[in-house]
Each structure stands twice: as C-alpha cells, then as structure tokens.
Write a structure and sequence with these properties.
The complex is a heterotrimer of chains A (409), B (295) and C (284).
Chain A (H helix, E strand, L loop, with lengths): L1 H17 L6 E6 L4 H16 L3 E6 L3 H14 L5 E5 L5 H5 L7 H7 L1 H4 L2 H7 E2 L2 E2 L1 E7 L3 E5 H7 L8 H13 L3 E3 L5 H26 L3 H4 L2 H12 L13 H9 L3 E6 L3 H7 L8 E4 L8 E9 L6 H14 L2 H11 L15 H10 L5 E3 L1 H4 L2 H16 L4 H12 L2
Helix pairs in contact in A: 1-15, 2-16, 5-15, 8-9, 10-12, 10-19, 12-20, 19-20
Chain B lengths: L1 H14 L1 H22 L15 H7 L2 H34 L4 H13 L2 H12 L5 H7 L16 H26 L3 H10 L3 H12 L1 H16 L3 H6 L11 H11 L3 H34 L1
Helix pairs in contact in B: 2-14, 3-14, 4-8, 4-11, 5-8, 8-11, 13-14
Chain C lengths: L2 H31 L3 H5 L13 H9 L10 H31 L5 H12 L7 H10 L6 H25 L3 H9 L4 H9 L4 H17 L2 H6 L7 H9 L8 H21 L8 H7 L1
Helix pairs in contact in C: 1-13, 3-13, 4-7, 4-10, 4-12, 5-7, 7-10, 10-13, 12-13
Amino acid sequence: MRAARLSLFGLALLAGAAAHAAPPRAEVMHWWTSGGESAAVRALADAYRAAGGVWVDTAVAGNEQARAVAISRVVGGQPPTAALFNTSKQFLDLIDQGLLGTVDAVALRDGWDRFLPEPILSTIRVRGHYYAAPVSIHMPTWIWYSKAAFSKAGVTKEPATIDELFAALDRLKAAGLIPLAHGGQPWQENILFRAMLANVGGRDLYLEVIRDRDPRAIQSDAFRKVLLTFKRLKSYVDVGAPGRNWNDATALLITGKAGVQIMGDWVKAEFAVARQLPDKDYGCIAGLSPQAPYIVQGDAFVFPKSENRDVVAAQQLLAHVVTAPAAQLAFSKQKGSIPIGAGFDPAMLDPCARKGLAIMADRSRVVGNDENYLIPDQNGALSDILTDYWNRNVPVETVQKNIGAALSR
Amino acid sequence: MRGMLNPRRARAYVALLPMAITACVIYFGTTLWSLRVSFSSSRTFPTDNFVGFAQYARLFTDDRWLLSLTNLAIYGTLVIVVCLVLGFLLAALIDAQTRGEGALRSVFLYPYAMSFVATGLVWQWLLNPTNGIQEGVRGLGFAGFQFDWIVDPDKVIYTVAIAAIWQSCGLVMVIMLAGLRGIDPDIWKAARIDGIPAWRVYVSIVRPMLAHSFATATILLLTAVVKLYDVVVAMTQGGPGTASEVPAKYIMDHLFGRANIALASAGSIVLLLTVGILLAPILYLRRHSARLAAR
Amino acid sequence: MSPRRAARIGLYAFLASAALCFLLPLYVMLVTSFKPLDEIRLGNIFALPDAFTFDAWRAAWSTVCTGVSCEGVRDGFANSLKIAIPSTAFAIAFGAMNGYALAFWRARGANVLFALLMIGAFVPLQVMIYPLVRVTAMLHVFGTLSGIVLVHVIFSMPLMTLLFRNYYAALPVELFNAARVDGAGFLRTFAHVVLPMSPPIIVVAAIMQVTGVWNDYLLGLVFAGRDHLPMTVQLNNLVNTTMGTRLYNVDMAATLLTAFVPLVLYFGSGRWFVRGIAAGALKG
C-alpha cells in the first residue's frame, strides 16, 4: 500500500519534471569512496535512475574534506544539488545563513515523522522545516568479538554485563592474545568512551552529560566511574595501537590475534571482504544490559538552496528516492547500516542488523550520537580531553573538570 | 645616465604589477581578513560578532596549541638543519663524481614526488614496533633493539621529523646542485694547481658562493615546516593522543572539522607573527651587513 | 691505500647507505602493491610477495571504485595535464620576470612588496580558501580551468619569485651591466642575457611547480569545477576513505601511478643541470 502510494508520488514528481522536458539532474557530493561504500552509493544512484533522474556523482574522500568542499562550492555560487552531511549540528550554520532549501513536501507526504528515530529527526527538522533527507543509520558502539579467539581463550559465553566483558578480556590476556583490538586515533578513543558511558553510565547519565551538558552530572561519582572504566580498557590494548586504522584493528580479529573490538557496524563490510560470517566467525553485542542505550548516528543529504525549478524538482525526487524502502534495503546491505523505514522483512538483513532493528523498536532505548547534541567545536574539545586522558596519566578529577569547562562553552 | 634608465625602469614596474596585485590584494588582503575574523566568534561562516582577544586567550590556554608550537620548534630545527647539511653534502658528492648522476639524483628526489597520504602510511608501518623496523632488526638477531618512537608521546615528533627530512632533502639537494653548477669550473682547476684539498675548497670557497642557494633552501624549508600537515595526518594523526600536534593541523582541524574559523584564524595570525619574529632579526642583519659591505 | 682512494671509498659508502635509507619506503610500497590483500593483512611488510599479482595495478588504473564511478585514476590523468601545463608555464614565467626585476632593477618599494608576498608563503593554503572562493566567484572564474590555473599561479608566486631572485642575485653583475651599456632595455636584457643562463633554476622551478600542482587535490577539488577534477582527487578518494575498507595494495599502486609524471620529469631533467653556464657566458 505504501509502496503504491510512494510510486504514485514519484510519478507525480516525474510528471512535474517531464513538463520541463529535462530529466531531473542531481549532482550529489559525498564521501563514500571505499569499495563497499561505493557499492552502496551505486544502489542509490540506480534507484534514482530508475525513477527517471540523472545521478552525477562527486565523491570526495574524508568526511571533513567533503563537507568543506561542499560549503566552498555553495559560497562560490556553484553548489551541488545535494551534499552529504552527518545528522548533526554541522549544517546549522548553513541553515542560519539561509543557504539550504527545504524538503517539507516530501517529508510530510512520506511521513518521515512516523518512522525516523527521534534523535535523527531532531537534527533534520529545524524550526519546523525539514532540511535534510536521511540516508543511513549506524550504531558506533557495537562490541564485536572473534569466535576463534574466544574459544582459544576459553570464553564460552557471550558477555552480557560489563563485568563479564572484563572477565573475558582477562581470559584473552591470559591466553596470550590481544584482548581489545584498538586503533589509537582520537575518534576511536571517543567510541570507547561513548560505549562505556552508555553501558556503565546508562541512558540517563548519557543524556545528562552529552545532551544536557549538566555540570552536576559531569562532576558526579557516576561519571567518574565511567571515566575510570574507560581508562581501564587501556590495559587490554596492545603496544602497537597508536595511529592504527580501525580496519587494521578489525584485521586482528579476523586473523584471530585479538578478541574484542568496540566499533561501529561498518566493520561488517571488512569481515565480509575476508569472507567471514556473523554468528559463525564473529559475534556482535549491541549493549551490556537489556536497558543499554542504542546510540544512533546517521548521514543525510542537504539541499543547497536554488531558485531554479529544475534543481528543486531534482532535489525533491532525490529526497523521496533515497528514503524509499527498496533503495534503503539495497543501500544498507552494502553499507552495513540499518535501513531507514518501517516494516522490513528481518530475513533480508544480516543477524546483527536484525538485532539492531529489534532494539530500535523500543524508542526509549534510542539515543543520539554526540554530534547530535554537541556542536562540532564542543565535540572536538571533548575528544581532545578524552584522547589526552587515554594516552597520559591525568587524574580523573582533572578530566572531569576539563570536560565540564569544554562543554559549558 | 639616470635619464637614460628611466623608461627602462618603468618597464620593470609594469612587469612587477602582477606581483604587486597578488601581494597586496591576495596575500596582504587575506591576512587582514584573517585578522578581522580572529577578533570575532565566527563559526562556519565569517560573522561580525566582535569578541576582542577572546580567541587568542583561548589559544594560549589550550595545551594542544602550546604543545604544537613546541613541536614546531623541535622538528622545525631538526628538519631545516639536517636537510641543509645533508642536501649540501649529497649535492657536493653528486657533483664531484661523474657516474650515475641521473640515477642518484632520482633516488634522493623521488620522495618529493610521492603524495604523502600513502607514503605517510608506509612510514607508519615502518616505524610500528610490532611490524616494522624494530621487528625486522630483531628478526635479524638483535633481540634488544628498540625503535618504538612512534608510540612514545615524548619521541613521536622525531619520527615526524625523519619522514619530513626524507621527503624534503632531495629538493634541497637539487637547489644546491643548481647553484653548484653555476660555479666557474676554473676555480676547481686553480685549486688543484695550488694544491688545496677538495674539502677545503668546498668549505672556504664554494660554500660562501652558495649563500643564495642556502638562503633559498632555508626559506623553502621554513615554509614547508610551518605548513607541515600531510605528514602528521598520514603518519600519526597528531597522536599518540595529541603528542605530535603541529600548528597547521590545529588550525586545519578548527577550520573545517570544528567549524570555528575564528580560532583557526587566530592560530594562523599567531603562526605568522612567530615566523616574523624569527626572521626579522636575520633579515635586519643581512641588510645591515650588505649596507656595510656596499660602503 | 692513498688518502684519495680512502676518500673515494668513503664517498661511495656514504652515498650507498644514504640511498638505501631513502629507498626503503619505496621498497615497501612496491612490495605491498604486488601482494593480495590477504597477505598484507598478515602484517609482514618487508616480505616479498608470495602470490605476486598485478591485480592492484590494474585496479588502480582502471577499475577501482571511487564513489559511483569505477574507473580508477585513469580519468583524471588528462585533467591533471590540462591543469599542470599552463600552471607551470605561467608560474615560471611570472617567477622569472619577478625575480629578474627584483634582482637587477632596484625598483622602489619592490622589496616591501616582495616581503608581503613572502608572508603569503607561510600561511597554510586552507586558511586562504574562503577569501579566494569569494574573489574567484567575483571574477566569474570559480569552477573553471582558468580559475584553477589562476589559483595555482597565485599560490606559487612567492616561492617561484624567491627561487629566481636568489639565483639571479648570485649571477655575475658584469654581464648585466655590459648589456645595459650596449643599450639593451628591460625585456631585451631578460631575453638575451638572463634567460639563457637560467636552465638550472628553471629545472628546479619546474620540478617544484609540477610536483606541487600534480600532487595537489584540495585546490583542484574546490576551484577546478566538476569537469576538470585532477587525478589526485581519485587517488585521494582511494586512499583516504573515512569509514570504508582500505585496499592497501591498490593505494600503493595508485600512488606510484600518480607519482609517475613528476618522476619522469626528475629523471629526464638531467641534461639541464649544465655546469658553468654563467662562467661560460662571461668568457664567450
């Protein structure tokens, strides 16, 4: 029923576009340049073509780079039709300067309010208007483990609490394996921190610190415990970790040299390239308690404002196509993300995505990523403090104080 | 005499016009614009929200920025000194012998051609204690060999210096080579007739004649050192933690990722001032000595 | 052994060991580019490939995906040439002209201008992107080939001018004075006296400029417009993915492919490092 309604809407847009005698042409700027990501983008491009549009691809590696180029092109007067951003506060400044167009018609017609998780919706819908079309939903703090390493270390049960996780890590260490595969880069350390905040601190503390930036929460004992647990993880990391790329850490799991990695669901692509399967060669844990918050981060296309009717038509068609179920399924399969929408047949997804989707059905468990709530500057300052704490011997009280100062800006 | 020269000199002014426009409008203008933005609270786009010296205050209470300046001093000195010495040595040696010059020149110059995004990764691998040189030498039998600077927060900046030297040495070498080739070959013949040893000729006669090549190479290296960014991002991402932070990376991170162009502008102004303070006495001395020599 | 002989051997030994150190990263790059990904994952960077394969090179040139298009780095090659050739030519022309005017003709205020220009050499180019975007947009060259060439010339001017100015300042001033006495004007002296003595420094300038332009991708991305994206954009897309898997062997192959043009220039530039140009001119 929904599919029929969607294609009618698509036809309407197409008819509108056809009246101008040129197929809708969209230049799409994004940072998805690796093999798996490229395949995912192609799924979207194919869907757009099937709907009658022309997809012109401009891929720029590096998410910061891609956004910087997109903003430069907007300022220079030659904006792309759509540009990829994270579902975050990154494009607030663009909105304030009046540089972005809205896709209210598509959002209302397709009922985005109904199936988008609240954290994602809150970044897309600003002051009542919809400024971006969400494309992917990822969870950054999955706990992955290598079945081979676990069996070698004698860990028989999948850890279900934080204590069981540390017990497993101890077992791995005793067996001579690398307990926690980690790449020493600030964003990866940030992921470890968020995982501990979510699993040890719980949903309320997470929101109080990250969303509300409540000074009392930041100086509390509970948060102190989170920070100490975060630092405790460092003793399970090998000496070659600094600077290592995230996929090299995954490689340690793949070759059975390490047991656990805490990383987002994009690692599934890495396992797939090495021909390893979920539940058979590796396992995935979403949270260390039945109430553990499920952090969502996402990507979305924004639409630089244009007076040209053809461009606006192309933008509307794009917003409609990329959020449609069929395109989402094809896209998320390659990307490792969770498809946006409702009513998916779980059989079409891999076991880990299925777990994620089931958890997301419980809306109270879904929380946003740090970039959802913090502006880039605050987020960066927090990252600096965390990576400093991870790498040097800083007293935890100082860290708490610094975080309080950074987030109060 | 003066009258005869004037129309020609007018042509010199005309020829310098593009440079004048570029210098004034682009470079000077941009610097002024940066200065203006640094006094504001601009985020992604420049705004007129004046906040005085707040960004500079933030800079100088930020450990990361202060560390980046220290790092700049350390690796900057290393890179400039080693590259000048090594570059001159290599150029002199290549100039002195006739065989395989093309190959040798390419061996030392090829690093300059490589995009650092990939070579930075290779250096990371080479310096990694578990897989790189440390492991390789231990495999050869030297069990206690340690070369894990890249994971040591106190020593990581030296690894950045090594990679930067590897990349820039070749260019210094060819600049010196070009300068050496401009020297009258009769000098060598005369020196040999007089029985002066080769190294003496280099040190006492050739080196002063290469003063301009040295000056060019030094300024070139200084600009590269101040703007060093790719190397750090590709090799260490500023890590471990923030131990190998450099000013250019600090500025860049705040310009794009952190959407804080005001702070980034403040950083680049401070950087410019630092370079200016370093260079000013040297330039003054040079002009002073030139004036003395002219008298 | 005579001290001369010992010195010779010492010289060769030093050159050889320095060469080995410099070549080590290249060895690792080559070896990695010929290995399949499974072997690389094992982590032994010095080992020669067990399963030697050209796949990575083929992929890098023509089939690897960067975004929707899967055509490797081949596409951008022509664009890179279209950008590099005019940029180098104009940059050298301006640099030589500026250097000549500064070194020989004491124009008033020129040194102040030169100092201002040199300030620009110390500013990270990313800081200048926003103002330059506005300026090129005003001149209606944003996103065009002329725009990117203009931007490259602007950024190269400080160092090019420095290079030529210092080189010309080291040349014997008698030549210049002789030409002036003969009645040659500004351009005449430049064309007939100064330029013929410039090949070594032109080679250095070309090396610097071609390498800089060829390896640049940020300026190309922002200013060249979608139709003129250089091959470094594809290279960067290959090597620099944020959260995607990395094909290290293809990365290495692509980097070597991209470095090919500057390397050819380096190797072929030998005959221009001619000895005693200035001296020869004096005698003749």
